[in-house]
Amino acid sequence: MLLTILTSVSLLCAVIPALLFLRNLHLYKKPPRPSALGSVSVIIPARNEERYIADCVRAVLASEAIRVNVIVLDDHSDDNTAQVVREIERTDSRVRLIEAPPLPAGWCGKQFACFVAAHFANEPVLCFLDSDVRVEREGLARMYAALREGGAPLISGFPRQITSSPLEQLILPLMHFLLLGFLPLDRMRRSLQPSLGAGCGQLFLAERDIYWKAGGHETIKGSRHDGLTLPRAFRKAGFPTDLWDATEIAACRMYRSAREVIFGLLKNATEGLAAPQCILPFSTLLFFGQVLPIALWIASLREYQSIVLRTMATISLFASYTPRLVAVFRFRQPLIAALFHPLSVILFLLIEWTAFFASLFHIQFAWKGRRYSTS
Q1: Predicted TM-score (pTM) of this structure
Q2: Rounded-to-10 torsion of CA 262, 263, 265, 268
Q3: What is the largest CA-CA distance in the chain?
Q4: Is a pLDDT exceeding 90 seen at residue 350?
Q5: pLDDT at 248 over 70
Q6: Which of 152, 183, 193, 330 is 20 to 30 A off residue 231, Cα-Cα?
Q7: Where are the domains of the chain?
Q8: Is the per-residue pLDDT at 303 higher than 90?
């Protein structure tokens, strides 16, 4: 009896995200080809990014079908970030290096860097780009076209995530599953409800005038998860936001070691699924729908189990794996990320609950030389 109840709940928790994921795939579109020449100010906040900043800036400067200027804000780096950018600035007038003023109390470093740099932007469209993102030659032009054609003054693109180490490959590809499996994109586009706002902090485009009307990054100054909080701030101000599939037009190597994966996710988890109001329901949904199906399927193979139970367990397992296997091809994800899906979810939940309990005890985590509280 207990096994039947668990299998029924697991089936429900697996099938609903799978169906939503498949539906969202048709709504989660690639940016269109550019139809008109536009101009964009690309803002790159950089703290200790000497290994990546040159490639990021040069990729932007190589953009086609769009006019660009680049504003790099050096956020008190203690490496050679500023010197690297300064060398590019000397050879290309489209690049401008700005030194960040002292970080005010209550501000997250990235949000302050974006806010300060935005004051130096002259183009009607702003692009906020992480320094570990590499845009393709038509990438910015296509995102500009998406901004103009889509009607939302703030859009975000999810780049292709480059992963190498085992923990990167297991956890980071969950990004697309969590987005498309639990956020109804059609409802998001019909509504200004802040809780439906979502994005990827690696790549944002915004209408400059609307950005300032919405309050800019000052409205999320203490946030470490601008991928969620910036779209929600726009929505609170009455402006719609949208999402685009940037797999073809940009790539990002977000983290480069297991340690970076863990602490990078810990620092902002409590602003997302590890928030007090979210962690229990989402953990329940993920455990029953993505972890339990494989155990229930194995249990259903025993000879004395009914064909009905075995069928439900099989459907549940198939539903849990389908989005991940589809994502391997659609988003160019490693196959290991899909094959070890239950393990990926377990590791992800361990990080989320670690962040949750750390916030209860006001434990801080260091990131790029700064300490952040998870509370």
Answers
A1: 0.94
A2: 160
A3: 76
A4: yes
A5: yes
A6: 330
A7: 2-25+273-373, 27-254
A8: no
